[in-house]
Amino acid sequence: MKQHPDTESALLSRLNRHSGMTVPEGYFESFAQNMSDILPEQPWEKINENPDGKVLPAPGIWHKIKPYAYLAAMFSGVWLMMWVFGDILNRTSPQMTDNPVIASVLGTDRLYDFYNDNIDEYELMEELCDEGIVFTDLEF
């Protein structure tokens, strides 16, 4: 909804929107020149000159290919990181039967006899009840 120009100017005149901060006329047109006149010249601003006044050689090839080398290193790092994480996520946990020692123990009755002698039947029934197993559903 657009306001009428008279209403808009009346609203703006009632607001105190002048904070007292003003910029002199033409300040930003000559700002860059004034700033460079005020600041002292730095030694790094002299391109290809050393203190003796001799011209230094132009930058080598490394300065030209450095951004591309960094970019290639970054992409190589990202690829390597994705490969490592993908390898970790695709791994499966090893089965107990893959280990020959554990497989031989599981294949005998010694393991059953060991745990059968050390387990109280009442504690076993309590654990099964705690896990939510109903005895009427079990088949014997």
Write the layout of secondary structure elements.
Elements: H1 5-14, H2 31-38, H3 61-90, H4 100-106, H5 110-118, H6 121-130
Q: What proportion of the residues is helical, as a percent range?
A: 40-55%
Content of β-strand:
under 5%
Please report the total strand number as a whole number.
0
Rounded Rg: 41 Å
Q: Could you write a compact summary of the structure shown?
A:
This protein is mostly helical and 140 residues long.
Could you walk me through the main structural features you see in this protein, from its secondary elements to its overall organization?
The chain has 140 residues and is mainly α. The protein has a domain at 96-132. It is built from six helices and no strands.
Q: Characteristics of this structure?
A:
single chain; elongated; 6 helices; mainly alpha; 140 residues
